[in-house]
Design brief:
Strand content: 5-15%
Mean pLDDT: 84
Helix content: 40-55%
Radius of gyration: 27 Å
Number of strands: 5
Length: 299
């Protein structure tokens, strides 16, 4: 017996060819403020565009009511940089959908380790350090720090943080720890979804001296006594154990909650049950109603 498979077509999210559009035909969703222009990110984009041109195309969608107009979905800072540099046109990627959520919330930006590998690749291809520093809007010293990012970081910790936005100085802090503690610290960062310098410093402060690279040198942290450090070390170990327990049970717990909510919602749709609860167990009824509210459940 032969089974015929239904042919399915996948709709393309973009038109096949890039288009070059004048700026007057592109309608932005918001105005780039002076505060945005003063940000490090804006300055990096400006330096990169000036040095090597626009790398990532601007994303637009066609206006359904005006064939000669486009809505800007992604690339507001890039568009503003091009305008500030006196350009009048930009190469654009035309989206077949007009939603901007994906570009702002679901696109993975270049992580710190990915940038490090990109720098190594560029240098291996013969790109001068000065030009690369100009393109990234950093000085030579910072570029060297980025190039040597993983020197002293164990492979396991680097693997855990390979797609995370970890502060550059955060890696310098991790280098003060021995490999096994680097792995523990990276696991905590990922579990807590915190990759800031302050969090890395707190992990360093909670690290036992025998897990530091220079174990013979006591840790000197202003404003923190030795007793407080020992307490932080114990609390850090307890927190790590609790995080592991939550990770192990999270999937099953969430599934049980979804099934339980669905069952309660089904009961609450029965008028006889809600009437019975209101007459005999009026304290339960508001709680069940709150459980079945989507907003309360997802929060």
């Amino acid at each position: 017996m032969s089974v015929t498979r239904e042919e399915r077509t996948v709709a393309a999210a973009f038109e096949q060819e890039l288009v070059t559009l004048p700026f007057e035909e592109i309608a932005p969703l918001y105005v780039v403020t002076p505060q945005k222009k003063a940000s490090i990110k804006f300055k990096q984009i400006a330096a990169s565009v000036l040095e090597i041109g626009l790398v990532e195309p601007i994303v637009v969608s066609r206006d359904p009511y005006d064939t000669g107009q486009y809505t800007l979905l992604d690339g507001h800072l890039r568009l503003q940089v091009l305008k500030d540099q006196g350009q009048t046109h930009a190469r654009c990627l035309v989206s077949t959908d007009d939603e901007a959520f994906t570009y702002n919330k679901r696109i993975s930006r270049l992580a710190t380790i990915q940038e490090h590998k990109m720098i190594l690749r560029a240098l291996s291809l013969g790109v001068p350090e000065a030009r690369l520093a100009n393109a990234l809007n950093v000085n030579i010293k910072t570029l060297k720090q980025k190039r040597q990012l993983l020197d002293g970081i164990c492979d396991e910790a680097a693997e855990l943080l390979k797609d995370k936005q970890v502060a550059l100085n955060g890696f310098q802090i991790l280098k003060k720890m021995k490999p096994i503690r680097q792995i523990e610290a990276a696991q905590l960062m990922v579990a807590m979804n915190k990759f800031t310098i302050n969090y890395a410093r707190s992990l360093l402060a909670a690290t036992p001296e025998n897990q530091l690279v220079s174990a013979a040198t006591p840790k000197k942290i202003k404003g923190i006594s030795r007793e407080q450090l020992e307490l932080m070390e114990r609390e850090s170990a307890n927190l790590e154990r609790e995080v592991r327990i939550v990770e192990d049970s999270y999937g099953a717990d969430h599934l049980n909650l979804v099934l339980t909510r669905g069952y309660i919602a089904k009961l609450m749709r029965c008028e006889r049950i809600t009437r019975y609860l209101s007459l005999h167990h009026d304290a339960f009824l508001p709680a069940f109603e709150k459980i079945t509210e989507k907003e309360a459940f997802t929060s």
